[in-house]
Amino acid sequence: MNMIKKIGMLLAGTFFCLSLVVSPAFSATLNYRLKWLFNTSVAGDIMADSGGFFSRAGLDVRVKEGGPEKNAIKELELGYADFGVASADQVIRALDKGADVVVLAQLFQVNPMQWIYRADQPEIRTLNDLRTRHIGVTFGGNDETIMNTLLAMAGLTPKDVRISSVRFDFTPFLKKKVEVWPVYRNSQGVILEDKLAKEGEFVKFFNPADFGVSFVANSVVTSGRMMKKHPEMVRTFITALMAAWEFAMDPANSYRVLSDITKRDKGTRDDIREKQLGETRLLIKPSSQIKIGTIDRAAWVQTETIMVKEKQVKARVYVEKRLAGPAF
Amino acid sequence: MLFRRIYQFLIVYIIGLAGLLAIKYGMGLSDYVIPGIELVAETAGRVVSDYFFDVLNTLSVTILGQFISIVLAFTVGILGRKSSWVGSFIKVMAYNIQAYPIVALAPIIFILLGDGFLSRLLIASMICYFPLLLSVLGIMAAPIKDIEHFYIATGRMRWQLEVKIRAFENLSKLTTVIAGSATLAMAGTIVAEFIAADAGIGYSIRIALYQSDLSGILVALFMIGIVISVYQGMLESLGEQMKTKWSAPKGGDLL
User: Fold this and answer.
1) Lesser CB count within 10 Å: N end or C end of chain A?
2) Are the C-beta atoms of A191 and A272 separated by less than 8 Å?
3) Domain contains A183
């Protein structure tokens, strides 16, 4: 009896503490959760805030930094965020598990996840050139899924290449233990390129999109509930955000954009930040005809097909039905 | 002791899981945020055997790391017990190194040892060693005046005897510290696997995290909890047996 009482008290205490932690709030301030830390990759998001795009649209938005353990879709459901940035695989996984998420805009038209290799190595002109290469992948990460797809397309098996697990630091690549290393082209890629150039080494990048694999990266998302209850607010938000991104990606505004990024990303050198902005521009707006935020439906369907094939999700979730698009 | 450890862990785990499920159903959250009991059960069925061997893999490094830490901590603790300068130097060093985030030290370790077994072992030992050292140093540096006085006065005191007296008088504390350090060694190994390894339960958790698979993480936590409870329970039982043996050698009565 005593024991049951104790367990009961423990349970009650736990529920009380948890109820204090979880607060299903909706306030006048909108929370926008980014996927990663403040850096040049989120130039448009920073400008939307510091450039007054949100406030001029009559919105009070708190732009919150992301990070490795932050997940915008979970925060949407928990009421901690109203809008967020998530990668396509996160969206598809969430839909697979019954989450109510809607895609408003696709930020990256080209996935920044690419592979770097030294220019003195044989060039990767065809997928068959991957044969016998020592390739780094993050086991469980997007790059593993993408690499598996590329190898399958080339008719190669994991035995035809040498795969190594990658981690946070670049030592195996710098020490030439691994030849082909996954990087985010517009952030880590620029830093590594600069570092190796100082040592007299030059690099090339292997972009899966050049070989027909368009795995979608970061996109702006919200919940279906938000879309239904506050469609006007969603429209105002996404219009202001896309305008901020157009401003941020316009080379004419580089000085202003870089100065605003510097205020939030103090750890990066100015020249690196400038190069990163240039690379980000190529991924977000690869040509003047492409409007920022355009949703590439075919790429989304391909991303889902790859994930089904790779057993990342059990069955199709028909992600195309959840692509609202910036002009909905 | 062993049985108590296991059921205490089960109570904690069930309370935690019940709390999560209460939030899930109370707030109507999807399986993506908090997995339902069916999804956890389905995931467990799929991964439990793999995770079990992963935990055993981690445990093997843990045990070795803990053993190295215990040997080192006792060696340094015994050597440093006399000199107040050496003792305080070791303490300062231990406090400082404990404050360094292992994630920041990891790249240095990987450059020196590469990523694999040795890095895991070193990180596990580092996380386990310093708290253990501080406890051993504290115990070994504190004289048991009532007993030691007799041997000092009769000129029969030797360093081995001094260490034995202090260890015997603090046997409960030492047993608790050693059993507790198993958790630290396990946490250290998991951290190392999380940062850079291609084996062990930390590595599997990292993959589950990449895929936002909370059900996989819950199964992994269960496996870690149950295995570490058994291991700690065994250490505590061993400590009890040692205490009994020391207290009543050669079949004598307990004091």
Assistant:
1) N
2) yes
3) yes
